[in-house]
């Protein structure tokens, strides 16, 4: 059913994920001169986690029920990148995440997207790697914890978030290099 119904369940989930992005951004934008309150942090956390969970379901449903579409192949990774990059950017002003970390992650996402686009023009598909998927998982856990920020049940949520973010940053660089070398390898094969 590849491409027969563009407005299917997986694509609707992806579009909902994209609609959540401006809402989370607005929640993370506190009034001037004020910190992000615990209530706002919890609301943004719930929306972010819900959005990341829909990413698991849309891919599973699309593959399991053969609902993969060209639109879904385009929108799904775009939604993931926009969500992560937008939220990370919003966590810079309150000091929850260093700006240099965001620059590395955003740069990697742009670079990998460009490489995959260049490869596709040559008829080469560079599939998502296990490293890239692990990177996404670690970053999403770290970002979720940094959104929440405040200690919960005595757990240092911010510290935990920074730990996951650091591990995700290592995999961000590693998987970015992996994509680059796979791209170069595929081009030289031709």
At a glance:
The chain has helices spanning 9-27, 38-64, 70-90, 99-121, 130-148, 157-189. The protein has 190 residues and is mostly helical.
H-E order: HHHHHH
Uncertain spans, ≥5 residues at pLDDT below 50?
Answer: none
**Structural domain tally:** 1
Mean pLDDT: 90
Using only CA atoms, what is the Rg? 18 Å
The backbone outline, from C-alpha atoms, is globular
Strand content: under 5%
Largest sheet: none
Q: Under CATH, the topology is which?
A: Four Helix Bundle (Hemerythrin (Met), subunit A)
CATH class: Mainly Alpha
**Tally of DSSP β-strands:** 0
What fraction, in percent, of the residue positions are helical?
A: over 70%
Output the CATH homologous superfamily.
Answer: CDP-alcohol phosphotransferase transmembrane (TM) domain
Can you describe what's shown?
- The structure is a single chain.
- The protein has 190 residues and is an all-alpha fold.
- The chain has one domain (9-189): CDP-alcohol phosphotransferase transmembrane (TM) domain (Four Helix Bundle (Hemerythrin (Met), subunit A)), CATH 1.20.120.1760.
- The protein is 75% helix and 0% strand.
- It contains six helices and no strands.
- It has helices spanning 9-27, 38-64, 70-90, 99-121, 130-148, 157-189.
- The longest helix has 33 residues, at 157-189.
- The two termini are 31 Å apart.
- The mean pLDDT is 90.
